[in-house]
Design a protein that fits this description.
single chain; 861 residues; alpha/beta; Leucine-rich repeat, LRR (right-handed beta-alpha superhelix); Rossmann fold; 24-stranded mixed beta sheet; binds 2-acetamido-2-deoxy-beta-D-glucopyranose; Toll-like_receptor; transmembrane signaling receptor activity; immunity; receptor
């Protein structure tokens, strides 16, 4: 009891109604209104077999959807203030005399959907306040029910099989539900006797009761009858309903339901004037005629409908074009639901009717009407008038042509609407059309739902829809919307176009023309449209936008402008392909957040990356004032490919920062090493090819100075000199004395000596290169001095390069060893040549001299 009291205290201290597990039985939930110690217990759907013992101050017990088959006598004896109890959907077999003994305050008992076959008359004897009783869908025989103690009932739900008359005991009933939809019902014929003793009824549910006939006078004495449901009596038909209409002017009828009073697979219906003539004298506000296969409406029917009618439900019919449409303007409805037109149906077991005086086939009567579908909104093309080339071109995607079409209004198709209509529901009508230019009749339409059709292309414009504030065209497989489609719907505030294929057209709207006239738009739903990107200016005219949903698209960046939408509250970008949000966009988003106003951003289900490049984004996640919806569910991929939840962005940021600082130094280190390596390599390359480079340099330089080599016509080069003599200054005596003498004077060769033949005023290196290039051979006078001289070695190297690159590796070098040099004195490049090529040693004796000169002359000439 103490625990119990404290539980209640907790309840009192909290001022909201809260459900908690009850202290006395944790399978149940207890709740109490603020400041009250009385409370309700909900034990529904807990597979309870044995009823718990409830504390005293419980006012309402819900035990529905359990497995209770017995209520022990006096079980609720202590619950003196219990008012409502429900045992719906259990396995009860009987209600005994003492089942509810003691609960004298009970006002409502629900024992529907059990297995009750026996109800004792005494059950209700001491329940003077009982007003509501639901016994539907049990095994009871209504005729055998003793109603002695039920005379105070105001509402009753019961099965009703083949009973001729409702007994007099229940004269206080206001609401009677014998519908076969939620129980069992069968009354073939309703006569004035059937409800003779129930004049006080205001709600009567007779749906699915297999009614075949209703006689005049059945409802006449029900002055207060407010709602009558005759739906699903498929044998009744409109012709059988006529007798009902005679009585209705004597009632207070407001809501009349006549859904499916016609079989699914019968001839279509034509609604006639005589069907509804008497309805004019009623004050019906709501009429339901769903699923009646109504195809035609006789002209005049609309003007016979009550002037009070505001809500009209006529889904699942097959309306077609007819003259009645000219009256549709005067229909005073504010709300019309024409969903599921032309819906498909599965075969079903059909009721067998007792009669019928054969109804004239609807088809026979329809021959005068053209078989056009009123909702066929394709541009008019009457039989015989084929669509011409010019009209065809108007349907082209060319927006210029569309503008022309708009200016010449004649091409718009006319769409009639009731003048006072505010809401039109036009869902799921199996309509596969493109929406052409449509001119609506004068209207005050505010809410238009055309979702779940197949309006696959929106060409428009929709003209004369000046009051529309809500438009739903979701689920239409639409892949095209023209730039003028929304031209004339300036007051649109909420637009749902999700679940289409607008990703095919929106990315091309670079100037934001599609939405440019919708200045008042506050909410737009573009979810699931396969949008890969949105142009920067797409929302340029929508400064008032509060809510944008782009969920389930293919966006990999936020490319559209946001900063001008200062009222933005919700931006849903969940389930896209964002890997992060760029700094620019983050700044823009942050800028749209005004003080006292919250912006909520949903980024769930994006393949974020948490790497060193996106570290700024991770930081932003916990620093921004924007509320990130569902942030705990965001996932991201680390640089090592691991996928983690971003539960705590600030901790993740610290972790990343640490990793990335080492990453940065790694990058710097690597860069330095790379640069060093590169420097070394290039230095090595330069060193390796230093001679070639120098050679090239001087060759180019010489060429630049106009010293082109002279070539003869037959590929044979003509050289200025026969040989260039490369020698050290110390050996000049030998050259000047011996060489010139022997070779030039005696053998007539032309030699090039730097002392004599170099051009003055030109760089010595250039002179050398040029001289080598102009000489057929190069004779190197090898000596200790030669090896030590910088310029001599330069000449030697240049000659080598010349032989490799200009003479096709022909041997042009010829070594003359003036003195004996051991191979260890020779540098590698000289040694190389000595080993592979010819050289000659200068003999210092007379005879040898002769041979030497002859040989040399031979080589050079
Ligand atoms: C009962 O609970 C089950 C599982 O908790 C649920 O699937 C079922 O819809 C519930 N039934 C009703 C009638 O609430
Ligand atoms: C009790 O039952 C009546 C009639 O069914 C209902 O109007 C009322 O809301 C119920 N009260 C509670 C607390 O469930
Ligand atoms: C329903 O009651 C009958 C007897 O009236 C009984 O034979 C049957 O087993 C019961 N069904 C269930 C599901 O309890
Ligand atoms: C009907 O209600 C009245 C007043 O509440 C009460 O006196 C009378 O006993 C009730 N009748 C029955 C059969 O419970
Ligand atoms: C109900 O009981 C009466 C007589 O007690 C009987 O004539 C009638 O056929 C029964 N009705 C049903 C549907 O069993
Ligand atoms: C109904 O029950 C009352 C009280 O138990 C009894 O007096 C009366 O005879 C019963 N009526 C019928 C028709 O069984
Ligand atoms: C209409 O009611 C009369 C009796 O009032 C009856 O004779 C006639 O058959 C009923 N019509 C239909 C179609 O049920
Ligand atoms: C319908 O309403 C009008 C005006 O409110 C009233 O005069 C008339 O009696 C009502 N008719 C019915 C059948 O209730
Ligand atoms: C329109 O009618 C359909 C079919 O009866 C129904 O499913 C839908 O809920 C209705 N819509 C509105 C807004 O009444
Ligand atoms: C339509 O125009 C095209 C060229 O614009 C022409 O080739 C074609 O024959 C025309 N078709 C008709 C039916 O006039
Ligand atoms: C119910 O609420 C609190 C708990 O009772 C307790 O103080 C009060 O006495 C109880 N009322 C009852 C049990 O009538």
């Amino acid at each position: 009891m103490l625990i119990f009291a404290s539980v209640i205290l907790v309840f009192i201290s909290t001022s909201v109604i809260e459900s908690r597990r009850c202290a006395f039985d944790t399978r149940c939930y207890c709740s109490s209104p603020p400041g009250s110690s009385l409370y309700k217990v909900d034990c529904s759907n807990r597979t309870i077999r044995y009823i718990p013992v409830f504390p005293k101050n419980v006012t309402s017990i819900d035990l529905s959807f359990n497995m209770i088959n017995r209520i022990p006598d006096l079980h609720f004896a202590v619950n003196a203030i219990l008012r409502n109890i429900s045992f719906s959907h259990n396995l009860l077999n009987r209600l005994d005399s003492h089942t509810f003994s003691g609960s004298s305050e009970l006002s409502s008992i629900k024992v529907d959907n059990n297995n009750i076959s026996m109800v004792s008359a005494e059950t209700f004897r001491f329940l003077p306040k009982l007003r509501h009783l639901d016994l539907k869908n049990n095994k009871l025989n209504f005729t055998n029910l003793n109603l002695t103690y039920l005379s105070n009932l105001t509402s009753l739900g019961i099965d009703f099989l083949n009973v001729i008359q409702f007994p007099a005991e229940l004269a206080n009933l206001k609401s009677l539900d014998i519908s076969g939809e939620s129980g069992r019902c069968e009354i073939k014929i309703l006569t004035p006797d059937t409800f003779k003793y129930l004049p006080g009824l205001n709600a009567l549910k007779l749906s699915a009761c297999k009614i075949n006939h209703v006689y005049k006078g059945t409802f006449r004495n029900m002055k207060n009858l407010f709602a009558l449901d005759l739906s699903f009596n498929t044998c009744l038909k409109f012709s059988g309903f006529v007798n009902v209409t005679y009585d209705l002017p004597h009632t207070s009828i407001k809501i009349l339901k006549l859904n499916k009073i016609h079989k699914t697979f019968e001839m279509n219906t034509k609604l006639m004037k005589f069907h509804v003539r008497y309805l004019r004298y009623t004050n019906i506000t709501e009429l339901h005629v769903d699923s009646n296969r109504i195809q035609q409406v006789e002209k005049g029917v609309i003007s016979l409908l009550p002037h009070t009618i505001r809500n009209l439900y006529m889904s699942d019919n097959v309306f077609s074009y007819g003259s009645y449409l000219s009256e549709i303007f005067i229909l005073p409805v504010h709300f019309a639901n024409v969903s599921f037109l032309f819906d498909t149906h599965n075969p079903e077991i059909e009721e067998i009717c007792e009669h019928h005086d054969e109804e004239p086939s609807a088809n026979q009567r329809q021959q005068n009407d053209e078989g056009f579908n009123i909702f066929d909104i394709r541009p008019f093309h009457r039989p015989g008038k084929r669509q011409t080339n010019s009209t065809f071109s108007k349907l082209n995607k060319d927006s210029k042509l569309e503008k022309n079409a708009f200016q010449s209004l004649d091409h718009s198709k006319f769409f009639p609407l009731p003048r006072l209509l505010k809401t039109l529901i036009y869902r799921q009508c199996q309509l596969r059309y493109e929406i052409p230019s449509l001119r609506f009749s004068d209207n005050t339409l505010e809410y238009l739902d055309g979702s779940s059709n197949i309006f696959y292309s929106w060409k428009g414009p929709l003209l004369n829809l000046n009051h529309v504030r809500f438009l739903n065209l979701s689920n239409n497989l639409c892949s095209y919307v023209s730039k003028v489609f929304f031209l004339s719907t300036p007051n649109l505030q909420i637009m749902h176009v999700d679940n289409n294929l607008l990703g095919f057209v929106l990315p091309d709207d670079v100037n934001g023309e599609i939405l440019q006239n919708l200045h008042k738009l506050e909410e737009i739903n573009l979810a699931y449209n396969r949008i890969p990107s949105l142009p920067y200016k797409f929302f340029k005219s929508q400064a008032l936008l509060k809510k944008i949903s782009l969920s389930g698209n293919m966006l990999d960046e936020i490319s559209f402008k946001i900063s001008h939408m200062i009222h933005l509250r919700h931006l849903d970008l969940s389930y896209n392909r964002l890997s992060s949000i760029s700094k620019d966009v983050r700044d823009h988003l942050d800028k749209t957040v005004r003080p006292n106003m919250k912006l909520e951003l949903d980024l769930t289900g994006n393949p974020f990356k948490c790497t060193c490049e996106t570290i700024g984004f991770v930081k932003w996640m916990f620093q921004t004032a924007i509320k990130l919806h569902n942030q705990r569910k965001y996932q991201c991929k680390l640089s090592n490919g691991e996928k983690i939840f971003i539960q705590n962005p600030s901790r993740l940021y610290e972790k990343l920062k640490k990793e990335c600082s080492s990453f940065t130094s790694l990058i710097i280190g690597t860069t330095v090493v790379m640069l060093l390596l590169l420097a070394i390599i290039s230095w090595a390359m330069i060193y390796r090819y230093r001679w070639k480079l120098r050679y090239m340099y001087y060759m180019v330089k010489n060429r630049y100075h106009g010293q082109q080599p002279i070539t003869s016509t037959e590929n044979e080069r003509i050289y200025t000199y026969d040989a260039f003599i490369s020698y050290a200054d110390n050996d000049r005596f030998f050259v000047h004395e011996k060489f010139l003498n022997k070779l030039e004077d005696e053998s007539g060769l032309k030699l090039c000596l730097h002392k004599r033949d170099f051009l003055p005023g030109i760089d010595i290196a250039a002179n050398i290169t040029n001289a080598i290039h102009e000489s057929r051979k190069v004779v190197v006078i090898m000596s200790q001095h030669f090896l030590k001289s910088y310029w001599c070695m330069f000449e030697y190297n240049m000659a080598r390069i010349e032989s490799i690159y200009s003479r096709n590796k022909e041997n042009i070098l010829f070594l003359v060893f003036l003195e004996e040099l051991s191979s260890k004195d020779l540098p590698l490049i000289v040694l190389e040549l000595v080993q592979s090529q010819s050289y000659i040693e200068y003999p210092h004796d007379e005879y040898g001299n002769e041979v030497f000169w002859t040989k040399l002359t031979e080589v050079l000439s």
